[in-house]
Design brief:
With 110 residues, this protein is mostly beta strands. The chain contains no helices and eight strands.
Length: 110
């Protein structure tokens, strides 16, 4: 839906990997979701720290869709940061921000 306040990001993992993904906004309550290639939700978080979200877990090899959106489809500017580590390891501090976009943009075609 072009009016949707969400942004989709594709992620392909060649092997198992631990990921920490942070989604933050000073404009809206964030919601972070991760889906596998079959469309099954494998992780989600709302309000990890205040109204910001975090997913932190190990993922097997495969293709994923990371969805950044606002709770109740409210959007605005946000920052997403991701850190990677070997599967089973706890990721360290976030790396440089991977993406900064306005969440009100239309989702990308799959």
């Amino acid at each position: 839906d072009p009016a949707s306040a969400r942004s989709d990001y594709r992620l392909s993992l060649a092997g198992p990997l631990g990921l920490k993904i942070d989604l933050a906004s000073g404009e809206f309550d964030t919601l972070l979701e991760v889906y596998d290639s079959s469309g099954t939700q494998v992780a989600s978080n709302d309000d990890f720290a205040g109204s910001d979200s975090r997913v932190e877990q190990a993922f097997p090899a495969g293709d994923y869709c990371v969805v950044a959106r606002g709770f109740a489809d409210v959007g605005g500017a946000f920052t997403m940061a991701a850190a990677m580590a070997a599967a089973g390891a706890i990721p360290g501090r976030p790396s440089r921000p991977a993406a900064t976009r306005a969440a009100a943009r239309a989702p990308t075609a799959a």
